[in-house]
Design a protein that fits this description.
Order of helices and strands: HHHHHHHHH
Distance between the termini: 61 Å
Number of helices: 9
Largest sheet: none
Shape: globular
Number of strands: 0
Strand content: under 5%
Structural class: mainly alpha
Radius of gyration: 21 Å
Length: 241
């Protein structure tokens, strides 16, 4: 632990930019003061170094779940996973990215005006995703879970107030497409998340987090569009046969 505590904040961010969100949570400057060690920062801010290191190590040790065969999962489990993993990710990361781009626009906007448009686009994305996820959590996902339970228990399912499950699914898929278009514009404006030569650490981390956000959104949409939604439609149809 002592060796790890002596690594600098900047070294951790360079190793895995996801640690930047953790440092921001503790109001630790990883940009201009990234040359400080974990031990130095913890003493200055009265933070338990063991607690902070455990969280850093958890981030560094976390694995990608892309190898999981989600197609074999029950629909209620998959809906729960999407909500607790990807919806939670959006809720957690959105304010951090917005904070970074607000700072970037103030500091670098004069030389890089594209930052204002990227910021505007991400604000729109954040607002739309918040509304989108609420509709899934309060309307669509509960119905899909009812379908899964009714199928398992061989029960009759009552017709939903929105008619067929295909109706909200169609709306969700249209909204997915709109966010895909929005991020394609962000990718273009950011030169595929490539920071300019004069970029500071905050600039680089903001672009990395934005790229990770898009990658997570792609996984999120894939699970819904290509697995959860088609299987829910098939399952609902099975009740009318």
């Amino acid at each position: 632990m002592e060796t790890l505590e002596m690594k600098t904040i900047g070294e951790y961010v360079a190793q895995d930019f996801r640690t930047a969100a953790l440092f921001s949570k503790y109001e630790i400057d990883f940009c201009c003061k990234g040359n400080r060690t974990i031990k130095e920062v913890c003493i200055k801010k009265d933070i338990n170094p063991n607690d902070l290191m455990e969280q850093i190590e958890a981030i560094l040790a976390s694995k990608d779940t892309s190898g999981i065969d989600f197609k074999t999962w029950p629909l209620d489990l998959l809906a729960d996973y999407i909500e607790k993993t990807h919806h939670h990710y959006v809720t957690e990361k959105t304010p951090i990215i917005l904070q970074f781009f607000d700072k970037l626009c103030k500091v670098h906007g004069a030389n890089h005006p594209e930052l204002f448009k990227i910021h505007e686009l991400f604000i729109g994305c954040a607002e739309e995703l918040a509304s989108h996820m609420k509709k899934e959590e309060l309307m669509l996902f509960p119905y899909i879970k009812k379908l899964a339970r009714a199928s398992l228990d061989n029960e009759i399912i009552q017709k939903a107030p929105f008619g067929s499950v295909e109706n909200p699914i169609s709306m969700m898929m249209m909204e997915h497409e709109a966010e895909g278009d929005r991020f394609r514009e962000i990718v273009s404006l950011s030169n595929a998340y490539t920071p300019p030569s004069d970029a500071c650490n905050t600039y680089k981390v903001a672009f990395s987090m934005l790229e990770e956000f898009e990658q997570d959104l792609h996984k999120h949409i894939h699970l819904e569009n290509n697995i959860l939604f088609p299987k829910a439609i098939v399952l609902e149809h099975s009740f009318s046969n």
